[in-house]
Design goal:
This protein is 72% helix and 0% strand. By secondary structure, it is mainly α. The mean pLDDT is 92.
Length: 79
């Protein structure tokens, strides 16, 4: 595992410390890694939505019902 040195603003550092103090995480490193994992997962979802929007914009209209589109979207988000 790569070791890094990073600096936080005072409010962010206090929030990180509070999460560790509340036993939500065992260390700041664990918390930061979890936040990065969440951001990466969110980026995958954003990229999927963006690709769907671009495809839709380029293809015109769809025959899918709004319920079908909603089910497909929720399926991806709930992974």
């Amino acid at each position: 595992m790569s070791r890094q040195s990073i600096s936080f603003t005072k409010p962010n550092d206090e929030w990180l410390k509070a999460q560790v103090d509340n036993k939500e995480y065992s260390s700041k490193s664990e918390l930061v890694n979890d936040l990065i994992r969440q951001a990466r997962k969110q980026q995958v979802q954003i990229d999927w939505i963006r690709a769907k929007l671009e495809k839709a914009e380029n293809s015109g209209f769809t025959d899918d019902s709004k319920e079908s589109i909603l089910v497909q979207s929720k399926s991806l988000l709930n992974g």
